[in-house]
Specification:
The chain has one domain. The protein has seven helices and no strands. It is an all-alpha fold.
Length: about 210
Amino acid sequence: MWLNIIYSTGMIANWLVNLAGILLFIFLFWKRLKEDYNSDIVFSISFLILLGTFIGHLLSRYLFPDWFFWMEAFGAFLGFAVGIFKYNTRFFETYEALFISFMPWLTLFYLVELIRKPGFGMAVVVLVNVGLILLFNYINIRYKNFSWYKSGKIGLAGLLTSGIFFLMRSVIASILPSMVSFLGLSEIVLSGVCAFTLFLLIYNLSKGT
């Protein structure tokens, strides 16, 4: 009986966290893009992103349970790609909104895991995520003043913080391979490739290409 109650409580907590994460994502995504695009376009793209995330979740749940982060991330990116092509929005601007809008949701997920199973590794992941949100806001305000960022184009905050995000996943996976959503060697390689690609995009964007 007590196990059923605990399980039910955990399920309710998961639903509440995901509901809060979804609402936060939609609001932050809309707030980030509302000045440049019609609200209908912004909400349509956010719906496509969430739909892709949900499909990725289903695939991971029933076919690839250990790959839930990457399945959901790929689904979200696929929805994002469909959205920017369908509604002709700018890639870097929309990607930036996507990343910073997902971060609070992801942070909530890891925070709940930390509360369930307190541990040093999970605490580090939560702190890294919070630190990246703060870093994004700092770069977003000051990126035009960076002497090395000659183009001054929008997109640096999203690319740099997401590049660091994947770089940190690669580092943490090499030190703490048992972390939730981390896949050991596969995580190191995939996160490393993503980080390298994002840093390469930063280099190209800084040159104005």
